[in-house]
Design goal:
With about 70 residues, this protein is an alpha+beta fold. It has a domain at about 5-50. About 30% of the residues lie in helices and about 15% in strands. A three-stranded antiparallel β-sheet has the order 1-2-3, with helices on one face. Strand 1 and strand 2 form a beta hairpin.
């Protein structure tokens, strides 16, 4: 089991998601919950295609954190 970092971004009308360790693995959804489901499906499909093509499955290297600063 591998755990990939996902970056979520709220747009004007929807949510977007990207996986830095899997270039081109992106998704959108109308809600945060929907984009979470969609990006999981996108990751599964992305890894499945890599495996079918005999490519190496990249190990996760990206970490995500929050930094609190005075507003």
């Amino acid at each position: 089991m591998k755990e990939y970092a996902v970056i979520y971004e709220r747009g004007e009308t929807n949510w977007g998601a990207m996986v830095p360790d899997l270039p081109g693995c992106v998704s959108i959804g109308d809600t945060f919950e929907e984009v979470q489901e969609n990006i999981k499906e996108a990751i599964d499909l992305y890894l499945e295609v890599l495996q079918e093509q005999g490519e190496i499955i990249p190990n996760p290297t990206t970490k995500v954190g929050l930094v609190e600063v005075p507003a």
